[in-house]
Amino acid sequence: MYTFSQLLARNTVLGIVFIIVITMLSVVFLSGLTSEKQAQHQQALSAIAKQLGNHKELANTLRKNAKYTKLSINTFDGERVYSYTNPKLGFVFPTTQPAAKKISLKSENLTIEFQLDVSDDSFFVLKLILTISAVIIALIVIATSMSVKNNARFMSLVSSQIKKDLELVAQDETNGKEDIIEIPELKEGIKEIKQLIEGQVASSSVLEKEAYTDHLTHLDNRNRFVQFYESIMEKTSSVKFGVLVITRCSELQTVNQIHGYKEGDSYIKNVADLIHGAVSSYQSGRLFRLNSSDFATILPNVTLKEAENFSNDLTNRFNEYQNGADLDSVAYTGMVYFDQTKPLGELLALADTGISIAQTQHTNAWYVQKDADALKNNDFNQGNQNWRQEIDNVIENQRISLLIQPIQPTARNSKVYNEILARFLNSSDEMLPTASFIAMAEKLDKIAAVDKLIIETAINEIVSKNLLEQSFGINISARTISDEHFLIWLERKLLREPNVAPRIIFEISEYGLQQNIKTSKRFIDMVHRAGSRITVERFGVGLTSFKFFRDLKPDFIKMDSTYTRDIDDDKNNQYFLRLMVDLAHRLSINVLAESVESQEEKHTLERLFIDGCQGFYIGKPKPI
């Protein structure tokens, strides 16, 4: 749309062009007219001169009948009879002033030279041009004003139509009323805008879904959990109180290690379905997945008494699921009451304490953390104290059972072993969550005693069952190898069992070895002196160089599952593993692969010359 100044400028230019054209045509017309007028006057002058013999009378007659710029009458002898020059010449357009003419009259013995004065004609044409220009200027101003008003009115109608159509687009409706203005191009443009908006809305919906949805369970994730909790904490919210329930999947790490990540994903989805089934009984209940193993349930406007019924329902569902699954437990739950004064961080800490206490009770138990001051006093250590008692009970009463999972050699000359997996029992002979047990043992500085228990039990089992023809891997904590008393005990233990020591391979993580290179080297040297061997597990997660392994001289490296999972489809991991195998074999180190879950993965690893494969596809854990 043009502005007033733009329209005025455009119309002014057009007016000037028109005026110039009119002026040029007027000048051409006037020039022709004056030339013709001078020719006619020449004929008339000849006739008058012949009729009037008196020279003075002739001059007066000519002056009266015409207006001259110059008039001169002379005899053939050169005698000047009359001479006149107009001293006040008016406005004359260039090229319109006719040239002076000279007439010779032999019969009258006269020569007449004249030039007509056309200033009156030029002035008339000038006035005509100025009048036309004034009219054109007036028309320009009027037309411009009208154009601006019409354009403004038209654009107002277009704007109203666009606003109307866009409102229908936003409401996802079709126009059932008559249009304010019918413009096919506008309708097509609105249609394109609608398609664009729909595309943007769809893209935004997809991005929002990705940002706030857990891809495995399709539940709302931690971001949505925080957003939801903040919304119900607002003063205008209808939620004044409620219960926060945190449920922790206790067997995820074990399932991933033993059965593989696919089974781990299935386990998580099953637990999510179980919790969702319990939450569905509460109209306003919301379920979220916070991280790999934790789920959060918010029960708005529900009392702790009602929430206990919810947790009992959860435990029953978990127990039923456990009976049909190869699991020692399913999940443990911590609950805490909240109102609009409770910060989220404090609630999560209290619920976590509740989970720690629940894990020391019966399988799939729940615990209500009622005391909000627990974070500020010694009651916060209740979970730790319960765990300390359970760990001490396991150590003192040797409440441990051992399973083995085989590592299958890929060639006849490959030297591999069976990995020993420890399970711990409480006083009721119920299985404690292994990952939580180990984590709490490290936290409470009990891990060395736990590792001693595992090693002693494993050696006793090997000897009592006469399994000296086989080799066995025992996991050991990185913190334990830094314990001087443990190292002395282990060396003496291995030296007292010369037949068993060569059959034991100690597994320690790459990360654990990196924490203290000097201590790690001393531990490995001691193990080698006693006749046992070393496996560096979860290899590839850190940035360890092969110079590190050349100095430490491990016997095996076990590749982290991130490199072996779906290896048949991952060309990059295939290339990396082939390189690792070549370098390891040059250093006389055997390479093992864990979490092998399919025949395709196994065949691919064999082609890469991996020495041994371990995983659910190869063999399930079984009692030693």
TrEMBL record:
Domain of life: Bacteria
Annotated TM spans: 12-33, 124-146
GO molecular function: cyclic-guanylate-specific phosphodiesterase activity
EAL domain: residues covered: 384-624
Keyword Zinc: no
SMART domains tied to this protein: EAL, GGDEF
Keywords: Membrane, Transmembrane, Transmembrane helix
Chain ranges of the GGDEF domain: 240-371
Alphabetized Pfam families for the sequence: EAL, GGDEF
Signal peptide: none
Protein name: EAL domain-containing protein
